[in-house]
Amino acid sequence: MIKVAKFGGTSMADGVNFRRVADIVNADSSRRFVVVSAPGKRYGGDTKITDLLYSAHTALEATGALGESFKKVRERYVSVVRETGLDFAIEELLDRTEEEIKKIRSADFTVSRGEYLAAKVMAALLGADFIDAKDVIRFTADGKLDEASFALLAEAFKGKKRTVIPGFYGALKDGTVKTFTRGGSDITGAITARAAGADLYENWTDVSGFMACDPRIVENPERIPSLSYQELRELSYMGANVLHSESIFPVREADIPIQIKNTFRPEDDGTLILPPSKYRYGGRTVTGIAGKTHFTVIFLEKSLMNAEIGFTYKVLSVLYRHGVSFEHMPTGIDTMSFLIDGALLEGGVLEQICREIKEAVNPDHLRVYDDVSLIAVVGHGMSKNVGTSARLFGAIASAGVNVRMIDQGSSELNIIVGVDTEDYERTVRAVYREFFE
Length: 437
Hints:
The protein has 437 residues and is an alpha/beta fold. The chain has helices spanning 15-26, 49-63, 67-84, 90-104, 107-126, 133-136, 148-157, 185-196, 229-237, 248-252, 311-321, 349-361, 388-398, 424-436; strands at residues 3-7, 31-36, 129-130, 163-166, 169-171, 177-179, 200-205, 226-228, 258-262, 271-274, 288-301, 335-341, 365-378, 405-408, 414-420. The strands form three sheets. Strands 3-4-2-1-7-9-10-8 form an eight-stranded mixed sheet, sandwiched between helices. Strand 5 (169-171) and strand 6 (177-179) form a beta hairpin. Helix 4 packs antiparallel against helix 5 (107-126). The two termini are 38 Å apart.
């Protein structure tokens, strides 16, 4: 049995947590590969190491010095080492790191040092080998993961009993450090799992798995004991942020399950995320509910739209020119709607797009609806149980909520409804009651 264990920022927040992580790793000899994030918040109002490093880079660009932010980074790591009781020359490592940051002057390099330093300390604490992600994880020139990374990692693992790898970054072919998007340590963990031929990828965080919906909206929602990769993708994309949505791709190809575990309650079962070959339907109609808020809807109506060749292309070309993506595009014979993140349409962008759409396709009507929220109801069981849609819309109607939009994927894995943002939480609670209580 081979396990890859990735620990998130909350799990690495201070020296006490470093010790907790070490205890978890040492409790199971099959946890041979450990991926760590930079230390997160220790308490409300605290600042993540990654954010401090972004601020340090901004200060360096503006003043030529790293400023107070890097002093706080230094204090955090000195404190971590002191709290672990580890005999480790952290001050010397921090001095070298500061000089490298000043010399290289790259935002990606600067923020990657959070994971680098955390992995260095954790490797010393575990008595494990340290592998620098920049030597084994490669990006192509256009910023995508280079398939050569898997072979580089596999080669680096040879002959090593246990290794620690910093998450979140790798390097271009010329050695220039490049980071993933925020939360990218999950992706590093998945890449490591595939390269190691792992039987299980453990993702350790501060919750005991996926909840059936947002616990900030529904008090004590049910834990999801298991779900499929496809269900995970749908829920993650729609706002269930326990795991980076892109992290399943490396492990999916190797049929490796993912288990979400709680660093602070390691005895809890967590949630098992299964590839198609291992997933078995468990009888639940709905697996989970997730949502996103504050969308803008651009609604078009034009008679015989369906017969006008290039109509959709012309509209999408307007969005493309403005660098605006859409989340969903419900259509009818003579109607079409685009749901767009409202943050992308600020500063007069919405008005300009609407003008250009009118010029491009001359619609009979063009209307804009602001502040719409999307709720996704996800589960393989939805296509297996007669009356699921009736139950869903009956629950929403009973809550006195007007549905503004309906969209169902061709896989019948989910139904997405759009409601006014002021009705968002009320709708989530109504749907949860219908399918889980």
